[in-house]
Description:
Helices cover about 75% and strands about 0% of the residues. The protein has helices spanning about 1-30, 35-45, 55-65, 65-75, 80-105, 110-120, 120-155, 160-210, 240-250, 255-260, 265-280, 285-300, 305-315, 315-355, 360-380, 380-385, 390-415, 420-440, 450-455, 470-490, 500-505; strands spanning about 415, 500. The protein has a two-stranded antiparallel sheet. Helix 2 packs across helix 8. The chain starts with a helix and ends with a helix.
Amino acid sequence: MELQAIQIIVFLLVTGAIGLITYIKCRQAAPAKSDDVTAENKEVFLAGGGLTWVFVAGSITLTNLSTDQLVGMNGNQMALLAWWEFAAVLGLVVLAKVFLPIYYRYKCTTTTELLEKRYNNHHISALIAVLFLLGNIFIFLPSILYGGSLFLINMFDLDASIMTVSIVIAVIGSCYAILGGLRAVAISDTYSGVLLLSLGMLVVFLALSAINWDFSGIPAERLTLIGSTDSPIPWHTLLTGMIFIQIFYWSTNQTITQRAMASPNLQEAQKGVVVAAVIRFLIVPPMIVLPGIVSYKLYGDIGDAAYGRIVGDILPLWLSGAFAAALLAAALTSFNSILNSSSALYVCDIHEKYFNKKPNVSRLNALVTLVLVVISLSLVPVFATADSLINLVQQLYGLLSMPILSCFILGLAFQNVDYRAAMLGVLFGVGLYGVMTAMASSAAAPIGLGVMLQFMGVELPENPAVTLHYIHLMFVTLITSVPAALIFNRFVFGNRAEFGWVKEAQTA
C-alpha cells in the first residue's frame, strides 16, 4: 500500500507540474484581448505566431507519439511497424522543404485555406475541412481515448471500464484545448515530450534487460524489416501508398502542420520540423516496436495489451507513477491537439464562411470542442472490437487521406482547374476507396470499413472480392483521383488544365 501511495503521489505531482508550467508560460506570453477576429484566430489556433523551433519540434513529436502509437504499434509485437516511423522522416522533409514555404507565402491559418486561395473558392476548403473533421471525430479522437484507457487499465490493473477512463481523459484534454488554445497545447506537448521520450527509452532498455538482450525463440517474421505479402506491411507497399500516406499526414494534415505554421518565421518553423524528423528517426522506432517484441517472448501474442503489461511489470512501482503521468500527458496532448485543429477547421473554413464572419472565437472554440468530445466518446466501443488498433486507424483513414492529398496535388501542380472538378475528384476518391476496402473485407479478416460494418451487425462474405493490401488500395485511390478530377475539369466544366507547380511556387 505504501508503494502504491508513492506511485499515486508521483503521478499527481508530475501531472500537476506539467499543468503549472504550461499555465505560467501561457500567462507570460498571452497578448491583450483583441476584437480583431483575424488576430484572435491567430492567437487561439496559431499561438500568436510565437512558437520557437523547440516547441514546434516538441509539439509535432508528442502530437503524433501518443497512446494509439505506443499501444497500437507495440501491440503488433513485430519490428515491421518501425517502417511507419522511418517513412515519416520523408513526410517531415517534404513538409519543411515543399509545403511550409507555400503555407507561409500564402499566410495560412489552416492547410485548407491554401486550397481556397489556389482554387479561388471557399467551397473547396470547406469540403476538405469537413473530411478532416470526419477523420478526427470518427477515427483519431476515439482511437486515442481507447488506446490511452487501455494502457492505463492494463498497467495499473484498474477496476474501471474503458468508457470511464476515456471520459476522464476527454474532460482533462478538452480543458487544455478550450482554456489555452494552441499555445497551451504546444507548451504542454514539449515538456511532456521530454519526459515521455526519456522514460520511453528507459522502458526499452529495461525490456531488453528482462530477456538478457536475447531474442532467441521469437519467430523470424516478428524480427524482420522485410515484410512478406501477408504481413501488416508487405515490403512492396513501401514503394506505393506508404510514401503518400506520409506526405499527406505530415504535410497537409492540419493537426500536424498547425504547429509548424505557428512560428514567427519560416526558418524557425523549418528548424523545428527538421529536429522532429531527427527524433522520429533515432528515438521513436525502438520505443514503438522493441517493448512489443519483448512482450511476445514473455507473454505470447497478447495484442494491444502488450505495452501496458510489460511497462507495469518492468518499471519500479514508484517510477511507474511518473511514466503513467507521461503517457497520460501524451494521450491528453494528442487529444487536445486534434480538438484544437478541428476547431480551427470548423471556425475558419466553415463557420466564418457560411454563418458568421465575426464570431466570438473563444466561445465558439469551446462549443465545438464539447461537441467533438461527446461524439468521439460514443465511438470508443467500436475501437474496442478491433484486433489491431494501429492497423484499423490506418485502414479507415485511407477513406479520406488520399482523396484529400489528390486535391492538394491538383491545386499545387496545375492551374486553370475548376474547384467543382477538384471536389468531384475528391468525392470520387472517397467512394472508390470505400468500395475497394468493403470488397477487401471478409468475415474472417475484416479491414477498414469492414470492421465498422461488422460492428453494426452487417454480415460479411467468407472470402474477399479484392485481395490488394489496403496500402496499395490507397495508392490506387490517389493515382485515379487526380486524373478523374482533370477529366471532370476538361469534359464537364470545359477547362484545359495547365501544369504549373514550379512557376507558381516561384511567383506566389
